[in-house]
Design brief:
Elements lengths: L41 H9 L5 H14 L1
């Protein structure tokens, strides 16, 4: 009986288990680090943490100040 379909054939001369390995698995090919790992300014972290509990009017004022400054 012959083959039943397509056979898997490696297109690379290296061991498939080595593909995609990086010294830092979170790093992109360019060496960039995931944004979740980047340092965050302490003042920004305070705002981010408080944001869900802020009244809508306060949120709107913060957004307006940032938009105005930008």
């Amino acid at each position: 009986m012959g083959g039943a379909g397509f056979e898997l054939v490696s297109a690379t001369p290296c061991d498939d288990r080595d593909l995609g390995k990086s010294p830092d698995p979170r790093a992109a090919k360019s060496g960039a680090v995931d944004a979740r790992e980047a340092p965050v300014d302490p003042d920004l972290a305070l705002i981010i943490e408080a944001w869900p509990g802020l009244p809508e009017a306060v949120r709107a004022k913060i957004v307006a100040m940032v938009s105005e400054a930008g």
